[in-house]
Amino acid sequence: MRMIRFFIPAILWIILILVLCTLPGKDLPQVSFLDKIHFDKIVHFGLFAGIVVLICYGLYKSRQALSNLAIISVVILAGLYGLAIEFIQKYLVTSRSFDMYDVLFDTLGAIAGALVFKYWMNYQAKKA
């Protein structure tokens, strides 16, 4: 039970993403400037980078080590979570649709999160 505490930030982050991504389309702010620069893709990128960083951090703290295979597995699971959310938006949420570019930026964000975490792990190893 003590190890679950390392995953609480990741669990809360995953729930936050689900809540934000399942808001009905009419509840989302419409700002034409943000639409022109595709700000939602930047948000997807950051949200999914956060998932990977937080899950990898929880795994690292609970095991005191983390393999490349574990990090790659987290990236794949994060990408699949993004894909699942898109299907939820398509079939279960009013005024929302499936967007493959969202899945792409979710996955790119997950990869970036893995790279950031890997950099942090290497930095921590050099400090020790």
Automatic annotation (TrEMBL):
VanZ-like domain sequence ranges: 36-118
Domain of life from the UniProt record: Bacteria
Record key words, sorted: Membrane, Transmembrane, Transmembrane helix
InterPro entries registered for this protein in UniProt: VanZ-like
Transmembrane segments: 41-60, 69-88, 100-120
UniProt protein name: VanZ-like domain-containing protein
